[in-house]
Design a protein that fits this description.
Blueprint (H helix, E strand, L loop, with lengths): L2 E4 L5 H12 L2 H5 L10 H6 L3 E6 L2 E9 L5 E8 L8 H15 L4 E7 L3 H9 L3 E8 L2 E9 L15
Parallel strand pairs: 4-5
Antiparallel strand pairs: 1-2, 2-3, 3-4, 5-7, 6-7
Length: about 160
């Protein structure tokens, strides 16, 4: 049986290993460690911002989601190698959408490094639109947003259509 649940401090080491393994392939491409590899997951868990996908083999996915403001921010999503290509990323993004709606957020935002081309291709297929690009905290980032209200445009909050 599998589930998505809040992470606990007992999960910390496994979360850190999974995130490190998921982002390690990007180090040569970026020329440095991606930000998720150096995040403070203890503090994130204590703040209630980390959810994990758990199956019989352990933690297979991690999401870090900030819902204390609108838009909510999907800070990190990482999938274990053994589960990549099976749709878990789509499931975890849907989970963050539901959690964001539950927290009263109208928009879900995220960013990725411009050299993470795989991510930049996936997010539009999940309904995200690119909003802008910026150099932030030493990284060249591409920002995306998704309206959690289908009647609103995530780029500006204005009603769609017209």
């Amino acid at each position: 049986m599998s589930e998505i649940r809040k992470a606990t401090l007992d999960d910390l080491a496994e979360i850190e290993r999974l995130v490190a393994a998921a982002f390690a392939p990007y180090v040569p491409r970026m020329g440095r460690r991606p930000a998720p590899m150096d995040d403070d997951y203890r503090a994130r868990i204590e703040a209630g911002e980390v959810d994990v996908f758990v199956d019989a083999e352990g933690i297979g996915g991690v999401v870090v989601l900030e819902t204390d403001h609108d838009p909510s921010v999907l800070e990190t999503i990482a999938i274990a190698e053994r589960l990549r290509g099976r749709g878990l990323g789509r499931v975890l993004v849907a989970h963050t959408e539901e959690a964001s709606r539950g927290a009263g957020c109208r928009t879900l935002s995220l960013f990725t490094h411009e050299k993470m081309t795989e991510n930049r291709a996936i997010y539009p297929r999940l309904g995200f639109v690119e909003t802008h690009r910026a150099h932030q905290n030493g990284f060249d980032r591409v920002f995306f947003a998704k309206s959690l209200d289908p009647a609103r445009d995530p780029r500006d909050g204005e009603p769609r259509g017209g």
